[in-house]
Amino acid sequence: MASKTLSVSSLASTAFASVPRPCRPPHPPPLLRLLGHHHLPHASRLRVSPLSTAAATDPDPEDGVDTVEQLLLPRPASTGGRGRTDRLMKLQRRADDDGGIGEGPGGRRRWFPYLDAFRSAGGAELSSREVVEVLEPHILEARRDRIRRAVDNRSYAVCLVVEGLSDFGNVSAAFRSADALGVQSVHVISCDSSKRCREYRDNRHVSMGAEKWLDIELWNSPAECFSALKKRGYRIATTYLGTDSVSVYDMDWSQPTAIVVGNELRGISDDALKLSDLHCSVPMKGMVDSFNVSVAAGILMHHAVCDRVTRLGHHGDLLPEESRILLAEFYLRHRESTTSIVHEYVKRKAEKFMARL
Q1: Using CA atoms, how far apart are residues 208 and 31, in angstroms rounded to an integer?
Q2: Is pLDDT above 90 for 118?
């Protein structure tokens, strides 16, 4: 796998001019919790979707293994290089080029990653509606309400991409901000597996479990990541201070946009700059010309959400069917035991069907 270390820190030499605007950074997001697990592989690229994050308060000892750390471990050759990625995703996920782009309000292009199908151990498929009906009685009402509120405020219209980052504590902080602001999709480009595993163990408390409820995908290079994102209808906006940079305050964030932040020392790579659709910067008024990368990511996402609310009246923009599908996905991520409950339901359903024959 290509290897720039998985790092996140300061946009350092990447983004920011000088001209303030009345927009303040987001308040620190609420504490979440570290749980773990989920999903399914996605063929030929090193990418893992829905790692996890959502709304919780205290760690639950029944929540199973720490799948983020497992994901960051080197993948043994005996498994064909896939390891735990086979188990990360819950619902079936569509390919980038299978027609997953539709139209939302105002005719805007939109991407939604999930199919309305959960495949059980025996190969039988359940719809998201069935999954919700099966699991709802097993989740406390307060928890269900919190998950529903999180889903209502989710959007795939803005996604975050972190490239070549070296401080996983900052990566975790960026995850936490993404979850708090309703940015569901996060992408990580180019990482050294042994270093990122050590970094994660040292800094996993920073994310407070945000990764449990996010869709996190790993990529080997900017070209690989950007190609997939463009197929999904995103424009690529790299944070970079240059003569052609556009202020983030002058951008229309109602358009599907991937925000790319880079290494705290080197900034955005030359490849990423060349392959992006535009360069953007956060106007600054002080003596320094950069933020810590996790702070910059939080400011960018916060402004994107504010702009979307101003233009559209809301940030969360999932269609009713999409909301139900994502709700089922979140229910399945709730605990390690929830998947077992669904598998048992499918088994009983099959037994009743055979008994009627």
Answers
A1: 6
A2: yes
CB 111 within 8 A of CB 156: yes
Answer yes or no: are the C-beta atoms of 282 and 251 closer than 8 Å. no
Cα(210)–Cα(357) distance, integer angstroms: 47
- Name beta bridge partners: 266: none
Contact assessment for residue 53 and residue 179, using Cβ atoms and an 8 Å cutoff:
yes
Mean pLDDT for the stretch of residues 177-194: 82
Q: CA separation (Å) from 293 to 16, 28, 163, 175, 195? A: 12, 15, 11, 12, 19
More confident residue, 200 or 326: 326
**What is the per-residue pLDDT for 59?**
40
Bridge partners of residue 102, in order along the sequence:
110
| pLDDT for the residue 106 | 57
Would you call 109 helix, strand, or coil by DSSP?
A: strand
Q: Kindly report, residue by residue over 205-249, the tens digit of the pLDDT.
A: 444 456 788 998 888 899 999 999 999 999 999 998 888 899 999
How is 301-334 classified by DSSP, letter by letter? HHHHHHHHHHHHS-S----HHHHHHHHHHHHHHS
Amino acid letter at 330? Answer: F
Distances (CA, A) of 176 to 29, 99, 298: 7, 30, 9
Instruction: Give me the count of residues in the chain.
Output: 357
Mean pLDDT in residue range 306-335: 95
- Beta strands 246-247; 235-239: pairing state: unpaired
| CA separation for the pair 162, 11 (Å, rounded) | 10
Q: Alpha-carbon dihedral of residues 321, 324, 325, 326, nearest 10 degrees?
A: 120
